[in-house]
Amino acid sequence: MKTVIKDVWILTMEGEGPAVKGDILIENDEIKRIVASIDEPADIVIQGSGMVALPGLINAHQHTPMSLLKGFSDDLKLMEWLEQKMLPAEARMTPEDIYWGAKLSMAEMIKSGTTAFADMYIHMDEIAQAVTEVGMRASLTRGLVFLEDDGGRRLAEALDLIERWDGKADGRITTMFGPHAPYTCPPEPFRHVVKLAEEMNKPIHVHLAETTEEVMKIRAAYNRTPTEYLYDVGLFERLHVLLAHSVHLNLKDIRLLKGMRGGVSHNPVSNAKLGCGIAPVRQMQEQGITVGMGTDGSGSATTIDMFEEIKAATWLQKLECGDPTVLPARQVLRMATVGSAKALNIDHQVGTLAVGKKADLILVDLNKPHLQPLHNLESLLAYGVNGSDVDTTIVNGKVLMRNRQLTTIDEEELLKQVAVRAKRIVEGI
Ligand SMILES: CSC[C@H]1O[C@@H](n2cnc3c(O)ncnc32)[C@H](O)[C@@H]1O
Ligand SMILES: [Zn+2]
């Protein structure tokens, strides 16, 4: 299968070079050529004039089925929101709800330019099945909470997910272990998960230091910061680690993370909406820590449009530092592409547009009043574009959306399913 995208602005996100005009040849799942002009027959020809092609955005922290809980319980503190609203709602979700909720998130992600995501949730078979059908790329994790006595069952499900789904869907699915957070995973089971991950050479995806309450809780229980706690259970010795949030880090914590394998998922919209705080992105980047970007689930963030996240990230850092030069356009775009790819351990495959890499890319339509005139593409993408400006989304060489029409999801059926299911789940809570 050959696809050619013609006459398009191309922002590869490789090196420092500016966008160039040209053509892109995709063969099967791979980028074969990026040159000034391609004149050879292709199965699909996409006229890209007036559009910009860039690497698909990568959402480094999601709970996809929480799309069903969007807007159901806002304006609460995190622990109240989680314990009193989300957990009871999640206990009412059936495997089929999980499947449709995951699909709803995937529809929104594809329509706003996201091609890959990291997911931590329950009933992962249903999410993996949805990923397989929809065509996105995903790093899947069974969330592990060890506060009740069924931690063993959850761990067995995590192992089952890894065994049965890692490398599946033409290699689009990868897996990680997912100890949920320092406050839900005591040291003994946490160390056990670290040991298993090391033996199986699997990364770990974990929430870290999201709120001041978490910092106080871990201080009271272990006389440590949450970062020191993770360090002490051996997380940073050998493993690739994906840290969600990392809002409340002191200088010593940041020094502990220096040199870590993996990276941080910065989730500024969710952090702002839950009043958690602003992560020290500049300080982490100064220490060479990889910072990618994510949204968290739409149960907290409402929107999972990564272009919103890009804007929030740069604005909040500029405000926090009192300096408009902090996190400039190119750097924040790199966070949402290469940064996230590194954090998910898939940067050898995606995150930039380059010959030999997987064809995960998006076309953004610039023929709109709010995106003209065209002085600086990177500025427009970081500060002006919205998810609804994405015209085409391609993953692993397959077109998942063209002219804003989804090709692998029946939107009408999806919306019918989620309306009924979402209502049933929240009734009585
Ligand atoms: C056990 S599966 C994952 C678990 O995480 C919960 N969750 C969603 N958003 C957050 C957040 O911002 N901080 C902590 N935990 C979160 C979700 O509801 C699932 O129960
Ligand atoms: Zn989360």
TrEMBL record:
Binding site for substrate: 90, 142, 153, 180, 210, 296
EC numbers for this chain: 3.5.4.28, 3.5.4.31
Transmembrane portions of the chain: none
The protein's enzyme class: hydrolase
Amidohydrolase-related domain sequence ranges: 53-399
Reaction(s) catalysed by this chain's protein: S-adenosyl-L-homocysteine + H2O + H(+) = S-inosyl-L-homocysteine + NH4(+); S-methyl-5'-thioadenosine + H2O + H(+) = S-methyl-5'-thioinosine + NH4(+)
The protein's required cofactors: Zn(2+)
Keywords: Hydrolase, Metal-binding, Zinc
Signal sequence, start to end: none
CDD domains tied to this protein: ATZ_TRZ_like
Stored InterPro entries: Amidohydro-rel, Deaminase_MtaD/DadD, Metal-dep_hydrolase_composite, Metal_Hydrolase, MTA/SAH_deaminase
Gene3D superfamilies, sorted: Metal-dependent hydrolases, Urease, subunit C, domain 1
Function: Catalyzes the deamination of 5-methylthioadenosine and S-adenosyl-L-homocysteine into 5-methylthioinosine and S-inosyl-L-homocysteine, respectively. Is also able to deaminate adenosine.
Family under the similarity heading: Belongs to the metallo-dependent hydrolases superfamily. MTA/SAH deaminase family.
Protein name listed in UniProt: 5-methylthioadenosine/S-adenosylhomocysteine deaminase
Organism: Brevibacillus fluminis
Organism placement in taxonomy: Bacteria, Bacillati, Bacillota, Bacilli, Bacillales
Gene (name only): mtaD
